[in-house]
């Protein structure tokens, strides 16, 4: 790997650790836990890993001398800081005993099943410190959910004398980690399984997990790009920019970027669902802002659109739920039909209400909703050009208003989708520190014989030395949800809370943002300089933690 000058400089950065992870570490146990929902069902599914206590790491008197080989899997989409989680695990495991070996399974969970791995060495790991991406060992989306997969994994784990496996991933990956931990515990295989919270979407969050890693860096990258576009819009003064942002299941990224950049409009999917808004109402809201700004001589603006918006429009959400069940049950019959026949098949098998909604959708959107699902059974909403759909419908609305004499301005739209641009960025100081601390926490969970836990670090608005590291039972975050036509135990996703401090802060100013030009240009991530600039957390995290005090 050839390093840039920035990468060479970043390799020298030493992540800061919480006091509880420096030197000798001991465990402080809290109260016993229960799942966030469906307690009886979750307990029956996870009898060996349910109800364990939350734990905190505090300074100890004697260092734990662990003799264990450890395996690591990166699972799901990339997020800045993943390499630092691995570095934290590696350093802590080697510190506990230099003879311990650390293995990376290649290209995600499939590496465990297919027995593809490398032994991680200092020379190899040191190339990736504080760098973005998951290219150290690669990642993948194979789901670990079947007994034959677990047994194939056990074969290579026992062959390499690996006694603990760390799965670094999002809510679905950590759900799989919980299932795997329960399986190995129920068979007395002596293999621990630990999770780490990763997703730039920010929806792996709860009272124990203040934020998932990667969210900080990704939103700062997107905010820089949005700020650049805002400045361009304010310079040319002739385009409305519709920007779709990652976040299939929640609008955390869009909200954070709005707090950082103050665009004219930011749609929040959760609010649209709560208000039972129709697609036409959303379009009318945007068109009204266009008219008002045009009256002030401003025929330009910026609109932020969360990736998963289409699913949160209640009528379309109900349609998608029924489509999911229909395609899960009859997908094989449906896939072999011609496009026109597929449409007729869907209309014939949907309830009247949902068939009526499907029939009124633009053809390209209807087609995308009826395509194959992702590995988790979800609509592939990133393929739906929601930003273009909205701007086209706004243009049509403005033309009708122009014909009625209600509007005489000009409207030209440009479209952007910011997704992959933020997933592999060089991690911010916050994510570099946070991820390294998560890795060290995972290693200490292993050293203290824990399984079915997720590594956590809290108090993240304080200086890193005052962060609080520990672990939480994964079962505590779980409930039963319908996925791909079946009821399954899953980690509950965290949506934007409409009574939460970040959303309330946005609402305070959004009418002013819609009419006036209040753009903020955050600029690029800063790695060297004043702490208040280089180590600052997201606006979301700052507002949420301030509200707790």
Brief summary:
This protein is of the alpha/beta class. The chain has 22 helices and 15 strands.
Helices, strands, pairings?
Layout: H1 5-11, E1 25-32, H2 39-45, E2 53-59, E3 69-74, H3 82-96, E4 102-105, H4 109-114, E5 117-120, H5 122-125, H6 147-159, E6 162-169, H7 171-186, E7 192-197, H8 215-236, E8 240-245, H9 252-261, E9 265-266, H10 269-274, H11 279-295, E10 301-306, H12 309-312, H13 314-335, H14 339-349, H15 352-360, H16 363-369, H17 386-403, E11 413-418, H18 420-423, H19 429-447, E12 453-458, E13 468-473, E14 478-483, E15 486-491, H20 501-515, H21 531-534, H22 539-548
Parallel strand pairs: 3-4, 3-6, 6-7, 7-12, 8-10, 8-11, 9-10
Antiparallel strand pairs: 1-2, 2-13, 4-5, 12-13, 14-15
Helix pairs in contact: 3-19, 8-9, 9-20, 11-17, 13-14, 13-15, 14-15
């Amino acid at each position: 790997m050839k390093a840039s000058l920035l990468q060479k400089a970043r390799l020298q950065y030493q992540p800061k650790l919480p006091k509880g992870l420096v030197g000798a570490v001991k465990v402080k146990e809290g109260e016993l836990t229960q799942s966030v929902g469906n307690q009886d069902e979750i307990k029956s599914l996870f009898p060996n890993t349910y109800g364990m206590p939350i734990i905190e790491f505090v300074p100890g008197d004697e260092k734990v001398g662990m003799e264990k080989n450890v395996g690591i899997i990166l699972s799901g989409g990339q997020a800045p800081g993943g390499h630092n989680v691995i570095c934290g695990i590696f350093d802590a495991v080697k510190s506990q005993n230099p003879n311990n070996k650390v293995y990376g399974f290649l290209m995600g969970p499939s590496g465990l099943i297919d027995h593809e791995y490398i032994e991680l060495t200092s020379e190899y790991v040191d190339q990736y410190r504080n760098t973005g991406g998951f290219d150290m060992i690669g990642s993948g989306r194979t789901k670990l959910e079947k007994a034959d997969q677990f047994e194939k994994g056990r074969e290579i784990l026992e062959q390499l004398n690996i006694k603990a496996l760390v799965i670094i991933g999002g809510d679905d990956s950590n759900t799989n980690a919980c299932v795997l931990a329960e399986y190995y515990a129920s068979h007395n295989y002596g293999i621990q399984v630990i999770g780490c919270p990763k997703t730039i979407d920010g929806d792996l969050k709860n009272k124990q997990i203040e934020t998932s890693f990667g969210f900080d860096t990704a939103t700062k990258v997107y905010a820089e790009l949005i700020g650049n576009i805002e400045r361009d819009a304010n310079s040319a003064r002739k385009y409305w920019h519709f920007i779709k942002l990652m976040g299939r299941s929640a609008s955390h990224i869009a909200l954070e970027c709005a707090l950082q950049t103050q665009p004219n409009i930011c749609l929040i999917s959760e609010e649209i669902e709560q208000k039972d808004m129709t697609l036409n109402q959303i379009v009318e809201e945007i068109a009204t802002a266009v008219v008002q700004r045009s009256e002030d001589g401003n025929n330009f603006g910026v609109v932020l659109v969360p990736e998963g918006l289409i699913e949160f429009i209640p009528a379309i959400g109900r349609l998608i739920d029924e489509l999911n069940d229909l395609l899960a049950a009859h997908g094989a019959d449906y896939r072999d039909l011609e496009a026109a026949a597929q449409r007729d098949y869907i209309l014939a098998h949907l309830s009247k209400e949902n068939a009526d909604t499907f029939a009124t959708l633009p053809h390209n959107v209807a087609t995308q909703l009826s395509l194959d699902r992702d590995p988790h059974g979800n609509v592939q909403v990133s393929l739906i050009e929601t930003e273009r759909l909205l701007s086209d419908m706004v243009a049509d609305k403005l033309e009708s208003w122009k014909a009625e004499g209600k509007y005489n301005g000009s409207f030209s739209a440009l479209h952007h989708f910011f997704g992959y641009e933020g997933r592999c960025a060089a991690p911010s100081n916050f994510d570099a520190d946070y991820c390294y601390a998560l890795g060290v926490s995972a290693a200490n969970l292993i050293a203290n014989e824990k399984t079915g836990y997720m590594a956590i670090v809290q108090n993240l608005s304080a200086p890193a030395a005052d962060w609080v590291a520990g672990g939480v039972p994964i079962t505590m975050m779980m409930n039963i949800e319908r996925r791909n036509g079946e009821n399954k135990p899953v980690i509950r996703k965290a949506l934007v809370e409409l009574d939460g401090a970040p959303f309330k802060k946005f609402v305070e100013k959004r009418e002013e943002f819609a009419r006036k030009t209040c753009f903020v240009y955050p600029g690029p991530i800063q790695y060297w300089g004043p702490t208040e600039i280089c180590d600052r957390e997201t606006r979301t995290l700052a507002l949420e933690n301030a509200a707790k005090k």
